[in-house]
Amino acid sequence: MKLEVKNLYKSFTNTEVLHGISFSVESGRALGLLGRNGAGKTTTIRIIMNLFEANKGEVLLDGNKFIRQNHHIGYLPEERGLYPKKKVLEQLIYLGQLRGLSSKNSKENALYWLNRLGVEEYKDKKLETLSKGNQQKVQLAETFLTNPDIVILDEPFSGLDPVNSQILKDIINEMIKENKLLIFSSHQMGYVEEFCEEIALINKGNIVLTGNLKDIKKEYGKNRLTISSDELSLDDLKSIIQKDLSQIARVIEMRKDFLIIELLGNNSKNDFLRSIVEKDIDIDQFSTYEPKLEDIFVEKVGEK
Amino acid sequence: MRDFFTVFKFELMGFLKKKAFIISTVIICLALIIGLSIPTIRDTFFASDEKGEGNSSEQQQEQSNNVYGYVNKNNSITNVEILKENFFIGQLNEVDSIETLEEKINSGEFEAGYIVEGPTEYKYVVKNNEMSDMSQMPFEEALKKTFRVSELNERGIEYSQVEDLIYPNVQSETKVLGKDSVSNYLYTYILVFGLYFMIILYGQLIATSVASEKSNRTMEVLVTSTKTRNLIFGKVLGGALAGVIQFGLILLTATVTYRLNAEAWNNKLDFVFDIPSEVILNFAAFGILGYLFYAFIYGALGALVSRTEDVSSSATPITLLFIGVFFVSMMGMQNTEGILLKIASFIPFSSFMSMFVRISMGSVSTLEIIISLGILLISTILVGIFAAMIYRMGTLMYGNRVKLKDAIKLLKN
């Protein structure tokens, strides 16, 4: 399966919030939809889920118009919520039935997922009596109830403690292995780096970056190196590079333990290294720079 | 359709399992059972040999314990026996002087006293003149009769002959050719009031239920699970059936309990419970459609707010309109031929109540009933569709309450 989002435009009361969003994702892969708060991630997801209608653009599945009702979709909305005053199992069975499962299947699946998430013992309790963490697990059980082929998670890790995050991570990894199509939005880059092969970075309603995460990282790391010295402080090292090697490289950033530099013109790694050796600087660490997603994010979106 | 029934069942069971629903139904039914069984309970546990008669003689006994006094000044009354016989509220004792009379009234021996100064003239003496004092009229009546008897006797005429002429015993029977509004009034009143109460109560409950799905954020999960049409129709019809079940249970309890106790009631309440089947059928048809009509509106209004506490303010205009409809119908019960009631009986906002009042208490042609029912049916379907659209639009609008007027504008866009 291949899900394509093509050129989505959306306005609310004459304010355009999406200005042509496009990306695509295939089964067996996870797409990370990134962006700051208010960038348009949830609106995009709601258009995919047919909660909003786009003013322009389309969503295709294998080349045909994507109709949400024809597929089992595991959707975790940003606005979490279930019936607080209803019993856990009772409401899961109901929601499963609404999504086309028989009452028996719905119950079986609900029990499976409650068990899998470690909250089976609360099945006959009212949701509101559960702790927040356990309520979130019930919400996840609800999301995966139909064993969906397409999974769309809006900020799935927000509010989860490390243990629950790990449980969800395992499930997501499993789903990727089971060849499911997965989209998830987040502003927590660590998780996106962990699962997503593809990313789409949205800023103020525009796609500012999209594609394979490895390729993007490679592109961003190109011509960039990290360096540190045993005998010189980073400040001293920086001033030497700025003063004496300004024809070869420039310092982009100073991190806690190293400097990030960019090679200028046609200079190669070796050219830079030679110049450093000529200066008789004792090198502690020297390597090509592999940017973190967060670095790319901050650079693209501008502010931390 | 399957999803509709799933929602319908879930919502219906949600209402039926609510503690408030169970407790209120049980309390009302118990109150009816106890209230309607009181005559039987009284007959069983407090039966006296004389039954009804026992009561009235007791009352007389109690009354005759009250003692009144009078002074017959200048022997103004010659036949005091007649005066005493016709004084019904107690015992009438003669005293010699005004002083003795006042003394006995002050000491509490006499309730009150009368100083007779002539055959048609007296003074009333009482310790404290109270608003509710009723001791003067009976004495006056007795005095008048005494006067009539003695005057007629003097002219040689037998009083009883004249009495038969002046107060002849009239026997009457009523034959009603149309509707008997007198006996219809009470059951129409009860049914209309019941309907009013159900719509106000369940309308608010449905609106709150919709709003709570928004406030606890279940809405997004629901609208991505099934069509909104199934959700709103399932919810409204589920809530409506819960109301019908409650109303039906209460009516059934009242009817069965009364039937079991009818004898002890001496069939006094037959006119309330003997509702013609034609009226019941019309009540069911108009009542249920009207109920759904308003339930859909309340459902849509619930979707326009994000917090349950905003429901009542959002629903105020429609509640006020509904109360107006209720008053028009109630006033119409006094005059079923009134033009206002006639107009109201064709407008879907009011026809379910106004037309029912006309059917139950006045005379309406079958054609009029069919037209009114047709308009109501079509309007209810349209309101249902409209409610589904509002609901769909309102589902993801969080924040301030959206006014119905603005919602309609947005729908147009």
UniProtKB/TrEMBL annotation, chain A:
Keywords per UniProt: ATP-binding, Nucleotide-binding, Transport
PANTHER family, per the entry: ABC TRANSPORTER ATP-BINDING PROTEIN (PTHR42711), ABC TRANSPORTER ATP-BINDING PROTEIN NATA (PTHR42711:SF5)
Domain of life: Bacteria
MF terms in GO: ATP binding; ATP hydrolysis activity
Family listed: Belongs to the ABC transporter superfamily.
Protein name: ATP-binding cassette domain-containing protein
Species lineage: Bacteria, Bacillati, Bacillota, Tissierellia, Tissierellales
Residue intervals of the ABC transporter domain: 3-229
Record PROSITE patterns: ABC_TRANSPORTER_1, ABC_TRANSPORTER_2
UniProt cross-references to InterPro entries, sorted A to Z: AAA+_ATPase (IPR003593), ABC_transporter-like_ATP-bd (IPR003439), ABC_transporter-like_CS (IPR017871), ABC_transporter_ATP-binding (IPR050763), DrrA1/2-like_C (IPR025302), P-loop_NTPase (IPR027417)
Automatic annotation (TrEMBL), chain B:
Localization annotation: Membrane
Membrane topology per record: Multi-pass membrane protein
InterPro entries for this protein: ABC2_TM (IPR013525)
One cellular component term from this protein's GO annotations in UniProt: membrane
Example of a GO MF term: ABC-type transporter activity
Transmembrane segments: 20-41, 186-211, 232-260, 280-303, 315-333, 339-357, 369-391
Keywords on record: Membrane, Transmembrane, Transmembrane helix
Domain ABC-2 type transporter transmembrane: 19-388
Name of this chain's protein: ABC transporter permease
